[in-house]
């Protein structure tokens, strides 16, 4: 799969120059295997865009205590979920907890609706300025994120909410939408089955450390042919060589990777980064995926300190400043109306820095809590990348 994504005319020429009889250890005759590989690359790959397609096995948490009393945490292949298509079907089925949330008596529903309407009436100053409940919402005619219709593959039961679902804004609330969720799950299934491309796309990623969701997203974008700019607060030879290794393994036809030093707590760095991308590299960003985060566990509102201020500056203030700087560039190029914010609520993700403490108990959470689902960094990256299509 990786060879096909990387294949171009030069690759085909090198394959022609290589001795195909060296392909030993395969069921086909050595020469036949080499010639078949060359023919496949020439016929089906050269004119096709690179594809991101996750072909790894979905994993599950596993914790055991050894005879010596050591607690060992590992990732094992998830039972009955052998590929990405099966993973989509599993999360589409929902679970007992999400199912239980939508079972309310009519009396409870009427009471909640009455309370909500009372609050809305008390806060509304100009009722005529607000559309009535249930009225259709206007959409931008210039939206570039609309997808063609796809055939429904995944089925959604009326008594359950899928683990992966979409909500739409209704008033000031976000409400579950079965229609949007059905389209979303079909698109996920399409990506899992046929793959997707990021050819001619430019992305900015922050917070791309080892073992993070960001680094898995980086691998997917490079596999799909994107030009990716990543930031690091630890710019060194070892860091650059680490990302170079990722590019050498996952880079595909037309992809590129740029690594820049960056302090997201600095206003000067934020402005310089955007200027570097648009003025020096000459790129127009299609995606911004901000994963830079600083933990501030254990701090209450009466005990905020300098680390809390730094965390809020990195994860909130300067993130908005970054988006604002990009907006200025977009407006100068008459692209302001094409900005779109896509927010995702990320579930409990195993194996990443901020949630390492939960790894040991993830196995018991899934087995004993009857329906709780944790996710690997690769699974979460697949979900985030699906929002880029």
From TrEMBL:
It comes from the Eukaryota. SUPFAM superfamilies: NAD(P)-binding Rossmann-fold domains. Residues 125-146 are annotated as: Disordered. Residues 34-95 form the Fatty acid synthase type I helical domain. Signal peptide: none annotated. It holds the Pfam family FAS_I_H. This is Fatty acid synthase type I helical domain-containing protein. It comes from Grifola frondosa (Maitake).
């Amino acid at each position: 799969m990786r060879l096909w994504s990387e294949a171009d005319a030069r690759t085909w020429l090198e394959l022609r120059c290589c001795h195909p009889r060296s392909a030993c250890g395969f069921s086909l005759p050595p020469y036949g295997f080499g010639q078949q590989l060359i023919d496949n690359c020439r016929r089906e790959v050269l004119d096709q865009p690179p594809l991101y397609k996750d072909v790894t096995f979905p994993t599950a948490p596993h914790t055991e205590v050894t005879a010596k009393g050591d607690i060992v945490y590992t990732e094992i292949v998830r039972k009955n979920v052998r590929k990405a298509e099966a993973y989509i079907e599993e999360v589409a089925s929902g679970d007992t907890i999400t199912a239980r949330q939508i079972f309310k008596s009519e009396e409870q529903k009427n009471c909640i609706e009455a309370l909500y309407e009372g609050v809305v009436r008390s806060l509304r100053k100009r009722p005529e300025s607000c559309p009535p409940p249930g009225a259709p919402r206007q959409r931008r005619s210039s939206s570039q994120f609309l997808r063609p219709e796809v055939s429904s593959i995944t089925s959604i039961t009326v008594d359950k909410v899928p683990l992966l679902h979409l909500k739409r804004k209704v008033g000031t609330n976000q409400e579950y939408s079965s229609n949007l969720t059905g389209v979303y799950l079909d698109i996920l299934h399409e990506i899992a089955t046929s793959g997707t491309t990021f050819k001619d796309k430019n992305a900015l990623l922050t917070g791309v450390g080892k073992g993070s969701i960001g680094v898995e997203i980086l691998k997917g974008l490079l596999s799909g042919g994107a030009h990716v700019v990543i930031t690091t607060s630890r710019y060194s030879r070892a860091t650059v060589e680490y990302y170079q290794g990722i590019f050498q393994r996952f880079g595909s036809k037309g992809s590129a990777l740029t690594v820049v030093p960056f302090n997201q707590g600095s206003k000067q760095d934020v402005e310089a980064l955007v200027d570097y991308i648009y003025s020096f590299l000459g790129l127009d960003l299609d995606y911004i995926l901000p994963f830079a985060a600083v933990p501030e566990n254990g701090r209450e509102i009466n005990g905020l300190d300098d680390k809390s201020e730094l965390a809020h500056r990195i994860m909130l203030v300067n993130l908005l400043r970054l988006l604002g700087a990009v907006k200025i560039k977009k407006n100068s190029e008459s692209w302001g109306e094409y900005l779109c914010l896509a927010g995702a609520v990320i579930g409990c993700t195993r194996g990443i820095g901020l949630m390492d403490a939960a790894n040991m108990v993830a196995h018991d959470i899934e087995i004993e809590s009857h329906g709780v689902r944790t996710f690997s960094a690769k699974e979460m990256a697949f979900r985030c990348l699906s929002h880029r299509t």
